[in-house]
Amino acid sequence: MKDRPSKSRPQKGRRDDVALPALGVWGTLRWAWGQLTSMKTALFLLLLLAVAAVPGSLFPQRPANPSVVTQYIKDNPGTGPWLDRFQLFDVYSSVWFSAIYLLLFISLIGCVIPRAKAHYKALRSKPPRTPSRLSRMPEYGTMAIPAGSLTPAEAVRDAAKILRRRGYRVDIRDEDGERPSVSAERGFAKELGNLMFHTCLIGVLASVAVGGLFGYSGQKIVVEGESFVNTLVSYDTFTPGSNFSENQLSPYSLTLDKFDVEFDRESETHFGQPLDFTASMTVKDGPDAEEQKQVLKVNSPLTLGGTRVYLVGNGYAPMVTVRDGEGNVALEGPVVAVPTDGVYTSLAVIKAPDAKPDQLGFVGFFLPSAAMDETGVSYSYDPDPLEPQLNLNSYYGDLGLDEGVPSNVYVLETEDLTPLNNRDLPAGGIVLDANETYELPDGKGSISFDGLKRYAALDIHYDPGKTGALVFSVLSLSGLAASLFLARRRVWVRAGAHPDGRTMVEYGLLARGEDPRLTGEAAAIRGLLAEKWLVPQGTEGQNVERADVSANTAAESGHEAGNPAPPASNDEPGKDR
């Protein structure tokens, strides 16, 4: 039996006298910075940012629909509060989403700066020296210039002029020697495009951040004849940026003079479908500015005070007067009705919190062109207001508006209210045609349908970063195209004198990376050289001529193009490839 190795005996492949140095605080920070600024980390963070944005489309977001979020938490008492704790109702302003965003921003900056420095040094440096074995290049050729035509130095200078005209940076070496050569390089725009793409990606992120910090958006419904002034209290809903200040609001105003809708009246299959929406407006850029007439359409927003005003909806607003039990006017004016179908059957909610002795509420439908089916149910047969009608149920009691709790103006909570009118009560429902008045039961008051107006739903956006985002996006696409379609190439041409008086020329081409067009470039350069030196394009140098050109290099004379030798120095093309 073999003896077991002693515990004190050193194990194979391990030395006890070698200890790894401790990184320390500074070393750990440098290692962490290197990991963060690697391209692999940047790609991972970009993917992580896309994944982190998914909950924003799965769950309602508080900045866009606060009432929907409140209702969601109320309907899901088990999961709703936990989702709220993890900020899944405020995804794009959450701590974890902002952390990913900032890390991606820093990672891209850390990736771009070192590469930009290296590219700057490459731009200022000369093309690499001519390799000793041009026959090892992917594209290689030789040419023979008749005796007495050119010296090797003159041939190299001609080649340099031709390459310079094709956009190469050239450098002539050993011009006074026996074997002068020219080194040429082009395609720096490829790396420049790559850098521009990543730099502009940083610009896009910065522009989006500026828009999120200092921008705002809001919604407003404007009825015909009414005005909107760009102040904070005038908005129906308002979503400010993180660093928004009320001083950013430009003091412009607009008035909806008339709203026209054109419906299809010719097609049998699409009869009654809307064709065009036109909002005629009077706008003022400031309190002392002159009034201007402008037209707002669906795909033609207005630009006022740096904001964009979009037309996103429309409908009817019945003119209603509600009197309370004491005969006083509790509510008077237009009531916005929300369309529910293509013929503008609209939900109408009317709240009169000032009514006395009891607050009054009404809920029902507005029908632009009312008709009744066989079962006695009213419906609208056309979107135009041919026979406008209000069908309402009425309630009285506490509307819950005095408690300071936000509520939806288009919803009437009837749980704590007492019904006055509906189809199940002896009084029945309220049916009002235009210019009619209905007296409520029990002396609770009355309601009148006084007329009809249209309204326009406006969406107002201010994004100070949108111009920068557009510019950087276009530049990034241009840089991406340059990095994909441009090629980095190097060309070397070397000349030497043959004992019989001819000037022998050899050339080689090398691409940095894959370049399927390198063969065409080699053919183009050979054609230009042949045209310059009046050499027939069919003349090909033989292997013996390669040896003649390299006669002074004994180490090269034994290598053919089909049997390349390994590179002998760092100047060889094998390193570049």
What can you see in these coordinates?
- The chain has 577 residues and is of the alpha+beta class.
- It has helices spanning 24-36, 39-52, 55-58, 66-75, 80-85, 95-124, 152-165, 188-214, 466-485, 518-533, 543-549, 573-576; strands at residues 139-145, 169-173, 181-186, 216-223, 227-229, 237-240, 253-263, 274-284, 292-296, 302-304, 307-323, 329-334, 337-339, 346-352, 360-367, 370-372, 378-380, 389-396, 418-421, 430-433, 436-439, 446-462, 489-497, 503-511.
- Strands 4, 6, 10, 11, 12, 21 and 22 form a 7-stranded antiparallel sheet that branches. Strands 13, 14, 15, 18, 19 and 20 form a 6-stranded antiparallel sheet that branches.
- A hairpin with a 5-residue loop joins β11 (307-323) and β12 (329-334).
- The longest helix is centred in the first third of the chain and has 30 residues, at 95-124.
How are the secondary structure elements laid out?
Elements: H1 24-36, H2 39-52, H3 55-58, H4 66-75, H5 80-85, H6 95-124, E1 139-145, H7 152-165, E2 169-173, E3 181-186, H8 188-214, E4 216-223, E5 227-229, E6 237-240, E7 253-263, E8 274-284, E9 292-296, E10 302-304, E11 307-323, E12 329-334, E13 337-339, E14 346-352, E15 360-367, E16 370-372, E17 378-380, E18 389-396, E19 418-421, E20 430-433, E21 436-439, E22 446-462, H9 466-485, E23 489-497, E24 503-511, H10 518-533, H11 543-549, H12 573-576
Antiparallel strand pairs: 1-24, 2-3, 3-23, 4-6, 4-22, 5-7, 7-8, 8-9, 10-11, 11-12, 11-22, 13-14, 14-15, 15-18, 16-17, 18-19, 18-20, 21-22, 23-24
Helix pairs in contact: 2-6, 6-8, 7-10, 8-9
